[in-house]
Design goal:
The complex is a heterodimer of chains A (318) and B (516).
Chain A (H helix, E strand, L loop, with lengths): L6 H7 L4 H12 L5 H5 L1 H10 L7 E5 L2 H6 L1 H5 L4 E5 L9 E3 L1 E3 L2 E3 L5 E2 L1 H13 L11 E4 L18 E7 L2 E9 L15 E5 L6 E6 L2 E3 L17 H15 L3 E9 L3 E8 L6 H5 L4 H10 L6 H11 L6
Antiparallel strand pairs in A: 1-7, 2-3, 2-7, 4-5, 5-6, 8-9, 8-13, 9-10, 10-11, 11-12, 13-14
Helix pairs in contact in A: 8-11
Chain B lengths: L2 H26 L11 E25 L6 E9 L4 E5 L5 E24 L22 H16 L4 H12 L6 H7 L9 H10 L4 E8 L4 E4 L2 E7 L4 E4 L12 E6 L5 E4 L1 E15 L1 H11 L3 H4 L7 H10 L2 H15 L8 H12 L1 H23 L5 H26 L12 H18 L1 H22 L2 H9 L3 H13 L6 H6 L1 H11 L1
Antiparallel strand pairs in B: 1-4, 1-10, 1-11, 2-4, 3-4, 5-7, 5-9, 6-11, 7-8
Classes of the chains: A alpha+beta (318), B alpha+beta (516).
């Protein structure tokens, strides 16, 4: 038996549907010409750095095969780093080196790579192996994010991140994404990761969702989510809000990770964030977006916008 | 209401009014039937004559049908720029004749005929008197063999009809006698050709002649004329297929040429050939009668798809179905919320299903894509670049298609041979897309989108093969405007998709409980 409801019930809850998102919010507030800013991670990072938004530090860029063969001395001088394609999608082609063992580079799994292995990987990135449509790409060398172990109990393998939806620069809804056994260690809701809705005022866990259905506890670790609170919450909101000045995308999602030493860092931005966040928060997006369409001020500073969101969009503890 | 929305509604309204208006005009004023069924079949046969002119005066003469087997000519058209045209009628064979003072290079002339079989007409009465006995042009051992066969047939028969039947049975015996083999060696094909049979009948003092015509079939191109034998018995004419001993012409046989005259004569040109395409339209008997008179004055018809050569009309029959498919895709995506792999891939699949039939098509598609995905996963370990990878998948797909065809043919499953109707590039892209989806979003998403695509394709197929839909799209192309309007309206729909009513149901249920 399939449970369903009437459209007016959803409307009463202010749930945003896919058609509404596409035509009303993305179509109206996201200028297509700004998409490359979020689709190309190198551009995103450059812009973010210029705007003093915390991102994983860019160590170097390899643009040509010639540069790839000469990158040995740079890579040899590093202890740990990440290499990723600037236009990769779905986390493909990302190589993480956690440690060195003399000449060898160690992956998180303990696998040992030689410099030649790494150069081959870079060469694949440049050839467009991981980019959308096979376009030639560039490889970015980034400082490795040392993940804050605060969510170790909640996440099965993998790396948790915080997704904040912003509208006109105002944070409107947030969710913590936790990898599960089903999702194969990836924080991707389509693949079965858990999304935990977060109170916008405090970063406290509200409800959780897996495969679009509400759940009470983590399917692998059995821990309930109501005790969970994301640290550095103010900073996270500030980061997400500040992205608006960089991308000028009215409606977007910011993915933020927590570094043990550096705190929250912007990892990626998304011009078409999904709708499952509404289920995770047990709350529709529409009332907040409509309120901002009326009251949101174009000139408001990041601080003002965060303060507004914390004041207006907090969820009282139940 | 917002201004732009109002504008859109106005445009949509205008398009719908225009589309339905034209449709109704065609229906009421020009008598185009709105519904298929209980119709007369109107056949359009087009002869395309082509030849190389040699910078000389050109005269082209083509035999043209003059009824028979219940068919009546409704309308004739001659499309050929710069040629003078005349219809020549004579006792044995009507002809169409084109002339031009000077022509050079490749020339193409069209002769188009619309004919309909008037079902209630009594069987054909002999209009022509029996011709003279055909001249017998056989010699030596062939003549001896011919006489032997005729003698044998005569012994086993009573009248002209039974003799012809006996003769044809002897000639088409799967284990031919030595005499028959001698005759078979005369003809280029496998059996004994119609001209030889007419000579055999002449030996038996039976007047007969070869007639040529077309077995009418919908949407056929490059057809050739086939031969039948017309035998004159006491007071009637009998028709035989040289390869069978059964009397009578099939209902769909249109007699094109009678008597021994040639089909096509070209003077002043060489490499001449003539090809036939056939197409059927369902038309009401009333329309048939009115079409030639009224429609000729209506510009709407003059500039419609009917004015195109038949071969292109055939193509349009399919093309005009595509908007139905796209509409289904838009509807299922925007209103229902079914996710598909590739936006319009399901339509291409539906078009392939039209050739393969639904169940065979589904089975073939699933088999090819599954095998393809499996092989593609092996390819992904090789770290190929995108273009090379797709190209490899295309080759793999062709391999799978060939293997499937061969295996199924050996097993006697001929319907699997239709696998070739699937556009292989589309299959390859589907496989590529699905395997990327598998890596990025997991097997669950592949299943969702894959079954979504199949569902959409099946629905599109069912609608596109519906006789009413087929009839309306082809006969009323102005309904495209209505479809455009529906598309515009669907495009601005921002309400919930049906699947979202299920997806977001937990949000409502939860709230309901807390209020209790």
């Amino acid at each position: 038996m399939i449970n369903w409801c009437w459209p007016n019930q959803l409307r009463a809850q202010g749930i945003m549907g896919m058609n509404e998102r596409n035509s009303w919010f993305i179509g109206r507030y996201n200028d297509r010409r700004n998409y490359p800013l979020v689709d190309n991670k190198l551009k995103t990072k450059r812009l973010a750095e210029d705007a003093h938004i915390a991102v994983p530090e860019l160590i170097g860029v390899i643009r040509t095969q010639h540069e790839a063969s000469k990158a040995g001395s740079l890579l040899n001088s590093l202890n740990d780093f990440v290499i990723k394609p600037a236009q990769g999608s779905g986390g493909k082609g990302i190589l993480v080196i956690v440690e060195r063992d003399g000449e060898y580079f160690l992956k998180p799994s303990g696998e040992r790579l030689t410099l030649l292995d790494i150069q081959r990987d870079v060469s694949n990135i440049l050839g467009g192996l991981y980019s959308l449509g096979g376009k030639p790409d560039v490889a970015m060398i980034e400082a490795r994010v040392e993940f804050d172990p605060v969510f170790a109990d909640y996440s099965y393998e993998g790396v948790p991140d915080v997704r904040v939806i912003t509208f006109l620069g105002y944070p409107v809804m947030a969710m913590l994404r936790l990898a599960t056994h089903t999702s194969d260690g990836k924080a991707n809701l389509h693949q079965g990761a858990v999304g935990v809705g977060l109170d916008l005022a405090t970063g406290r866990g509200l409800n959780a969702v897996q495969f679009d259905r509400p759940i009470r506890h983590h399917p692998d670790t059995d821990i309930t989510f109501d005790q969970l609170t994301v640290p550095h919450w103010e900073e996270i909101l500030h980061l997400a809000a500040a992205c608006y000045e960089v991308t000028e995308l009215g409606y977007m999602g910011c993915d933020i990770v927590l570094d043990k030493n550096k705190g929250p860092l912007i990892l990626e931005m998304n011009a078409r964030p999904g709708l499952a966040i509404q289920i995770a928060n047990d709350c529709g997006l529409n009332p907040r977006l409509k309120q901002l369409e009326k009251e949101g001020r174009r000139r408001a500073s990041v601080k003002e916008r965060v303060a507004y969101a914390v004041r207006e969009f907090s969820t009282p503890p139940s | 209401m917002h201004r732009e929305k109002l504008q859109l509604y106005l445009i949509a309204l205008l398009l719908i009014a225009l589309g339905t208006g034209l449709t109704l005009y065609k229906h009421f004023t020009l008598d185009f039937p709105l519904l298929p069924g209980e119709r007369q079949q109107l056949w359009t046969i087009e002869a395309q004559i082509s030849f190389q002119a040699q910078n000389k005066p050109v005269m082209v003469s083509l035999a043209r049908p003059s009824g028979g087997n219940g068919y009546q000519t409704v309308q004739e058209d001659f499309a050929s720029s710069g040629y003078g045209f005349a219809l020549k009628e004579n006792e044995t064979q009507n002809r169409a004749q084109w002339t031009k003072r000077l022509a050079d290079g490749k020339q193409t002339i069209y002769y188009r005929l619309q004919a309909s079989r008037l079902d209630h007409q009594p069987p054909v009465t002999p209009l022509t008197t029996a011709p003279e006995l055909a001249a017998v042009d056989l010699d030596g051992p062939v003549m001896t063999a011919a006489r032997a066969i005729v003698d044998e047939a005569q012994q086993q028969s009573a009248d002209n009809q039974s003799l012809t039947v006996q003769l044809l049975q002897l000639l088409n015996n799967p284990a031919p006698s030595q005499d028959v083999q001698v005759l078979q060696n005369l003809s280029s094909g496998s059996g004994v050709d119609a001209e030889t049979i007419v000579q055999l009948l002449a030996l038996a003092k039976i007047p007969a002649r070869v007639i040529k015509g077309i077995e009418l079939e919908d949407r056929r191109r490059n057809q050739a004329l086939v031969s039948r034998i017309e035998v004159f018995s006491e007071n009637k004419q009998l028709y035989f297929d040289p390869a069978h001993s059964v009397e009578g012409l099939s209902e769909n046989f249109l007699i094109w040429q009678q008597g021994g005259t040639s089909l096509l004569d070209v003077s002043g040109g060489q490499d001449s050939q003539v090809r036939f395409s056939t197409l059927v339209n369902d038309t009401s008997a009333r329309t048939l009668a009115l079409r030639s008179a009224k429609a000729e004055q209506a510009t709407l018809i003059d500039f419609s798809i009917y004015s195109l050569p038949v071969a292109d009309q055939n193509a349009f029959k399919t093309i005009l179905l595509v908007p139905i498919g796209t509409l289904i895709v838009v509807f299922l995506r925007v209103i229902v919320g079914i996710r598909t792999s590739g936006t319009f891939m399901p339509i291409l699949m539906a078009l392939a299903f039209i050739q393969t039939t639904l169940l065979t098509g589904l089975a073939i598609f699933i088999v090819v894509v599954s095998i393809g995905l499996w092989i593609r996963s092996a390819l992904s370990n090789l770290n190929l670049l995108l273009v090379a990878r797709i190209s490899s998948v295309v080759i793999v797909v062709i391999g799978i298609m060939a293997t499937l065809s061969i295996i199924s043919f050996k097993l006697g499953l001929e319907q699997v041979l239709t696998v070739t109707f699937f556009p292989m590039i589309i299959l390859a892209w589907t496989i590529e897309r699905m395997s990327i989806l598998w890596e990025e979003e997991g097997a669950r998403e592949v299943l969702t989108q894959g079954s979504g695509s199949l569902l959409v394709a099946s629905l599109a197929y069912l609608l596109m093969t519906n006789p009413l839909v087929e009839h309306l799209t082809f006969n009323f192309p102005e309904l495209l405007l209505v479809m455009l309007a529906i598309n515009l309206l669907l495009g601005q729909y921002t309400g919930y998709r049906l699947t979202e009513l299920v997806r977001f149901e937990p949000l409502v249920r939860h709230k309901g409980q807390s209020h209790d």
